[in-house]
From TrEMBL:
It comes from Pseudomonas muyukensis. This is Protein-arginine rhamnosyltransferase. It catalyses: dTDP-beta-L-rhamnose + L-arginyl-[protein] = N(omega)-(alpha-L-rhamnosyl)-L-arginyl-[protein] + dTDP + H(+). Belongs to the glycosyltransferase 104 family. Protein-arginine rhamnosyltransferase that catalyzes the transfer of a single rhamnose to elongation factor P (EF-P) on 'Lys-32', a modification required for EF-P-dependent rescue of polyproline stalled ribosomes. The keyword Glycosyltransferase applies. InterPro entries: EarP (IPR016633). It holds the Pfam family EarP. Keywords: Elongation factor, Glycosyltransferase, Protein biosynthesis, Transferase. The keyword Endoplasmic reticulum does not apply. GO terms for molecular function: translation elongation factor activity. Transmembrane segments: none annotated.
Length: 377
């Protein structure tokens, strides 16, 4: 019998939470032979990532994963052997009671948000005894050996390499999105939250002697983009040129196609957690728009990652990279920071490749979760 896993996901920010849990569920099934149920409270948001999904079905199977709608009124279900509450979501009371009644209690894991902060290493894997006698363990994704690793399917980097090395493959993929970049243009993807610094950055790109082709999938940044372009109408396929900058609006693509988009670009601006990790696997320079928290608590998380990520860069290149990320996330002059990074472009590009290789040398998140489960037996 295959070990059974239940993953619970509350969709908080449209796609980040479900994006991570959907990738994880598929990998546990495909690579580790687990039987996985993914409980999701918002199937409509899930539909954007999995177009084959039936948003009205209480139960269905997609890519080997059993998808269950998690309604406000708990329908009841026998607990799995491994139970994951993603991102501190609260499991149904009835389910927790059923867990406590099992002859062998399930392994209960709280899969937390990704962070590079120092305290994460000390908390990863620790138990949290519950009043009903169950134990819940903290499981933190991360960038060091003392954490739970990053999501990475076994085929991910080989597929990235194949797209880049197979003649015409990159062009075929971009052509399928209606993208035909001009010769010598720097290709940049932009997926971000609202940002007042966007116009300042675009002004510099438009004035640059090197042409830039900016690819913007549908999302929250389109309002700021439209304000800079002077239009409220930015349908999919919209193409605008200003100086050396070409701006093109793309459709909201599947997870696999978003990976291919990141692999196809020379620079990726990403947001949240799922896209942030995928951009690191692309191995090219990147910019992270971190999810905003009250009282700017997210800045500590940003700075903690930058401490790790800048290791190996020269002081000048490291400082330029840090100032770019701070400008984007702290409402500072973005155009000035972008211009200051350009003299260090080759070094930052090589550093992105080295970071990708270093992270790929560590076990991935799904593998570490399975190891944790087997060690608990």
């Amino acid at each position: 019998m295959k070990p059974t896993w239940d993953i619970f996901c509350t969709v908080v920010d449209n796609y980040g939470d479900i994006g991570v849990t959907w990738r994880l569920a598929r990998q546990l099934v495909a690579e580790h032979g687990m039987a996985v149920r993914l409980w999701v409270d918002d199937l409509q948001a899930f539909l954007r990532l999995c177009p084959q999904l039936d948003p009205g079905a209480a139960q269905q199977w997609q890519q080997g994963v059993e998808i269950r709608h998690w309604p406000a009124t708990w329908p009841g279900a026998e607990p799995a052997q491994v139970v994951i509450g993603a991102f501190a979501c609260q499991l149904p009371d009835g389910y927790v009671q059923a867990m406590a009644q099992q002859p062998t209690p399930p392994l209960w894991l709280n899969l937390d948000y990704l962070s590079a902060e120092d305290w994460v290493q000390g908390c990863h894997g620790l138990p949290s005894p519950q009043a009903n006698g169950l134990r819940k363990y903290f499981f933190f994704p991360g960038f060091t050996e003392q954490t739970g690793g990053l999501l990475r399917e076994a085929s991910l980097l080989p597929r990235c390499q194949a797209l880049r090395q197979t003649p015409g493959e990159r062009e075929r993929f971009l052509g399928g999105l209606g993208v035909q970049p001009q010769q010598g243009a720097r290709l940049i993807s932009l997926f971000a939250y609202e940002n007042p610094q966007l116009g300042n950055w675009l002004d510099v790109l438009a004035a640059d002697a090197q042409p830039t082709h900016l690819l913007v999938p549908q999302g929250r940044i389109l309002g700021d983009l439209g304000a800079w372009l002077g239009t409220a109408q930015l349908p999919v396929g919209a193409l605008h040129r200003r100086g050396g900058l070409t701006v093109q609006v793309l459709p909201f693509v599947s997870q696999d196609d978003y990976d291919r988009l990141l692999w196809s670009c020379d620079f990726n601006a990403v947001r949240g957690e799922d896209s942030f990790v995928r951009a690191q696997w692309a191995g090219v320079p990147m910019l992270w728009h971190i999810y905003i928290q009250q009282e700017n608590a997210h800045w500590d998380k940003l700075e903690a990652f930058l401490v790790l990520y800048r290791e190996g860069l020269s002081p000048a290149a490291g400082q330029a990279l840090v100032e770019l990320w701070r400008a984007w996330n702290m409402d500072r002059p973005m155009g000035q920071a972008w211009a200051a990074l350009q003299p260090h472009w080759d070094e930052v590009r090589e550093h992105a490749r080295q970071w990708q290789a270093a992270q790929a040398a560590r076990p991935d998140l799904a593998t570490r979760l399975v190891q944790f489960y087997r060690n608990s037996l």
